[in-house]
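Technical annex, item 7. During the second reporting period the consortium partners agreed on a shared format for inverse folding records so that results from different sites could be compared directly. Each record opens with the tokenized structure and is followed by the designed sequence. A conforming record, contributed by the partner at site C, is shown below for reference.
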């Protein structure tokens, strides 16, 4: 039944590589190889008891360093806004797409990934070519004891049920964990109509004054929130800074042109 539901979503030609029951026991993690737009992708996702699929991460099997999802490229913009890129903290490992991308294009950046789910950690190690150190911990613990420790922090905190629960003071701790001139990026994915997510966005907006919001124009939009600590940076400053950063780092075209596919806002939209 489980395999039938996954094949119904990805097509009968997909290859189900692995399935694991989630720690809560009410859903399954899966790893699937499937074709998408002439590319062979390895997907990490969850499927609940109702058959609802949530894609968490993807790896292009012919180009493992490539970022597959648009929102990942929006989060990458944080590196273009940060004064330095020596140390990065990745909150939420998934299939490790950002780890592989940074290793390819910012090899001097010491990236530390944090993942609370032991099942995700095991799947990423076995099937997604993750070799860098990964801290098995809660995101809030990782930032609480890291004051001034990082140039860039990426928060991508989702599980089988959507946005992970975040304790009071979490965003303040994230800001405190940045070095002067650092930048924080937050992925606000689906479930935006849920009260929990709306409260989290409102809390982040209140604590992280001076943020830039990016909303992609696709049919299933994500919003990414960027907080640059370098003073005076706003939406109008981002395109030129990103063009320069992408040129110097020799980023692929799908990275360098990402701003053509989104809106840059000083405030989150009321609806998106």
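Designed sequence (site C submission):
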């Amino acid at each position: 039944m489980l395999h039938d539901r996954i094949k119904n979503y990805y097509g009968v030609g997909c290859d189900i590589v692995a399935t694991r029951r989630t720690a809560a026991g009410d859903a399954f993690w899966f790893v699937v190889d499937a074709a998408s737009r002439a590319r062979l992708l390895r997907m990490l996702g969850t499927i609940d008891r109702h058959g609802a699929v949530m894609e968490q991460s993807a790896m292009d099997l012919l180009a493992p360093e490539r970022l597959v999802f648009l929102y990942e490229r929006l989060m990458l913009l944080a590196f273009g806004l940060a004064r330095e890129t020596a140390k990065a903290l990745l909150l939420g490992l998934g299939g490790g797409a950002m780890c592989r991308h940074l290793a390819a294009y910012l090899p001097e950046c010491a990236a530390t990934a944090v993942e609370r789910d032991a099942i995700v950690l095991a799947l990423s190690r076995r099937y997604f070519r993750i070799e860098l150190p990964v801290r098995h911990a809660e995101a809030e613990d990782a930032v609480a004891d890291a004051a001034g420790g990082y140039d860039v922090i990426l928060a991508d905190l989702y599980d089988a049920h959507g946005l992970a629960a975040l304790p009071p003071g979490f965003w303040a701790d994230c800001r405190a964990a940045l070095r002067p001139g650092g930048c924080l990026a937050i992925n606000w994915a689906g479930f935006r109509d849920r009260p929990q997510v709306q409260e989290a966005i409102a809390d982040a907006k209140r604590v992280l004054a001076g943020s830039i919001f990016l909303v992609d124009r696709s049919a299933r939009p994500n919003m990414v929130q960027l907080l640059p600590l370098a003073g005076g940076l706003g939406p109008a400053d981002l395109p030129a800074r990103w063009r320069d950063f992408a040129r110097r780092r020799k980023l692929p075209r799908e990275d360098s042109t990402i701003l053509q596919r989104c809106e840059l806002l000083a405030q989150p939209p009321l609806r998106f």
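The chain has a mean pLDDT of 91. The first strand starts at residue 15 and ends at 21. All partners now use this format for quarterly exchanges.
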